[in-house]
């Protein structure tokens, strides 16, 4: 499993633990880690899953935006929509073509990138950062294992 360690926090305990001799002994810091896993679909979507909150950020890949050309319209799912892995959940239109967007994972749409309705070209400028499409609360995080790793996706794009 390809994973990226995103952040580590040291959370010291606020109160000292007293010992028999009444000296102050501090507890050890608690380590809190968040693992973020990014996977790809064969249809050129990606999802970046944060295990600390169960949310996956979804968008199209840089390869997809490059193939589409200048994006002129983005149709996004409504917040609260239940999606299943592989279901059509939106569309992207460009000067060259229109393309459906498929849900890389199952879950509930928690947020959509409203900026894309007025600035669809943001998908071309920043498809894997500011041009995210939606955030999905995953109902089955194990579906991430069915998706392509970055290396597998690169091989797929070269075919």
TrEMBL record:
UniProt entry keywords in alphabetical sequence: Lipoyl, Mitochondrion, Transit peptide
Major location category of this protein: mitochondrion
Domain of life: Eukaryota
UniProt cross-references to Gene3D superfamilies, sorted A to Z: 2.40.50.100
Keyword Ribosomal protein applies: no
Reported function: The H protein shuttles the methylamine group of glycine from the P protein to the T protein.
Homology family: Belongs to the GcvH family.
Record text on subunit structure and interactions: The glycine cleavage system is composed of four proteins: P, T, L and H.
Name the record gives this protein: Glycine cleavage system H protein
UniProt gene name: GCV3_1
């Amino acid at each position: 499993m390809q994973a990226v360690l995103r952040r580590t926090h040291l959370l010291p305990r606020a109160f000292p633990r007293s010992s028999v001799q009444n000296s102050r002994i501090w507890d050890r810091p608690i380590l809190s880690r968040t693992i973020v896993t990014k996977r790809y679909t064969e249809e050129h979507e990606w999802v970046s899953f944060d295990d600390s909150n169960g949310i996956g950020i979804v968008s199209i890949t840089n390869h997809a935006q490059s193939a589409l050309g200048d994006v002129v319209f983005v149709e996004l799912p409504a917040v609260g929509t239940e999606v299943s892995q592989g279901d059509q959940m939106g569309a992207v239109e460009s000067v060259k073509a229109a393309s459906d967007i498929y849900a890389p994972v199952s879950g509930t749409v928690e947020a959509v990138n409203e900026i894309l309705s007025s600035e669809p070209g943001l998908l071309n400028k920043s498809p894997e950062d500011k041009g995210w499409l939606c955030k999905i609360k995953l109902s089955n995080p194990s579906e991430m294992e069915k998706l392509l790793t970055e290396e597998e996706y690169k091989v797929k794009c070269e075919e």
